[in-house]
Design brief:
Layout: E1 4-5, H1 7-21, H2 29-52, H3 60-64, E2 65-66, H4 68-72, H5 75-81
């Protein structure tokens, strides 16, 4: 698997990990592996939506690049903003 993070995605993933580690049931490596699996699924869905929406110019780079938007789509960011869970 030859995925890579876009430059802004690296910082977003660091932020994700900081927030996730503060939540219940964080399980170190297993949580990170699961997060990466979900991230790849959001990435694939984003590309599918682009193609389905008529964007026929998805490059090889697009196929392997995780963006900050892919990461920020995680509910971990919603959890951190929810005042009842803070």
């Amino acid at each position: 698997q030859q995925y890579r993070f876009a430059p802004e995605a690296e910082e977003a993933f660091r932020d994700y990990l900081v927030r996730r580690m503060q939540q219940p049931r964080f399980a170190n490596g297993r949580s990170v592996r699961n997060a990466l699996d979900r991230l790849r699924m959001r990435h694939a869905n984003r590309l599918w939506d682009a193609i389905d929406g008529g964007d026929d110019k998805v490059s090889k780079g697009d196929l392997v690049t995780i963006t900050a938007d892919d990461i920020h789509a995680s509910r971990v960011f919603d959890f951190a903003r929810d005042p009842e869970t803070s």
